[in-house]
Amino acid sequence: MNLAEQENHNQQHLLLSSSTTNDDSTVKTRRSSSVLTAIEPVVLLTEEVDDGESIATSKPFALSGILYSLLGCFLFCTATFTIKELQIDLLDALVIRFIIQIFLFGIFVVSHHYPIWIGSSKEKWLQLVLCILNGFVFLGYFIGFRYLPLPDLTTLNFTRLLWTVVFGILIYKEKPSLIIFLAVFLTLIGVVFVAQPTFIFKQKKIAAEIPLNMTPIIALNGTDIVDTFLFSSRMIGISLSLGTGLFSAFNLLIFKQLITLKLKTSVLILQHSFVFLLCLIFNQFYKYFLLNDLTFFTLTIFQWKYWLATLISLLQTLGVICGNRAVKRERPSIVTIVSASEIIYAILLQNIFTKDKSNLWVLLGSTLVISSVFLIGVHKFVQERKTKKKKIDDRNNVNK
């Protein structure tokens, strides 16, 4: 289904433009480093305008940005959860979706005459590296979902906030506030509660879903072997989730070098969709030639569940579109806070519709991570207000 606004604001996974509202229209003042992390699970979307340039648009509904963000998180999370409950591998179900997505976005980009690959040689290489890293993030997220329940996966994926804070301190020499330190602490404790390492928690308390392709093997073994497999599977899922968060933070660092290109959102989605499709094709080649697994071509594509899962996967694309609309209508700090609703959706879906209930430690860990997101969002909101007030005061002083 998991990931800079300015140089001193690199400690969040959502860093976008802010807006001010007039009586009759909305004037959006976009900074040159607006970024959104919002797809699969992380693709960097941006829509750039020169510093200080104001764009007059029709005034949107006051809460439309929040509602779009909530809807986007709900659609993406629900579609991901439902496909797994249909017992269809997500990497199989997404093949048709990305073929359709590339076709539609390709038509849109070509019809608008948007350049797909622009910039100097260095910038083109950075775009390529960015696509490759997002391919790893894509695979890590959906393979990790084979081994972890959705609430655990989603919570651990939010460690991208922690990594961006760390990178901001180490690379950009930012001075973190007490609130940021508290948010980092809550995130670390939350990750420990969700991961439940064996030197703190008893192994028998650890539960994990058995991947579909491993069920026949596990059924032939004893209880001890099953418990060992569950533990190993959970560790694989945790490692992939944490790695996804780390790579997501790396993506922000690379994207910061591409800010001046003013890449269109549709072009970015098209670039990354193509890479994701290559990852899915590679997965099929891997299963076909190395694992001798022919089920996708001989069984899966002939099941009604597969085509239903493919149809449901298109809701993920709608979720991405809603997320993109949200960031054009709401402050980045607010979108950051609202994005944590994905964890809540995952917990509700898991505990209402499956027998695998989240234990108390997972619920507590998820709550701590949500709290850290809320703290960072509120902190950034206060900073945005101060920055906006300072700009207004400076402008008034200049006019005097």
TrEMBL record:
- UniProt xrefs under InterPro entries: EamA_dom, EmrE-like
Domain (EamA): give its ranges.
64-194
Q: Name one Pfam family in it.
A: EamA
Its GO CC terms?
membrane
* Membrane-spanning parts: 61-82, 94-113, 125-143, 155-172, 178-200, 236-255, 267-286, 306-327, 334-353, 359-382
Q: What keywords were assigned to this record?
A: Membrane, Transmembrane, Transmembrane helix
* Origin: domain of life: Eukaryota
What name does the UniProt record give this protein? EamA domain-containing protein
Q: Which organism is it from?
A: Adineta steineri
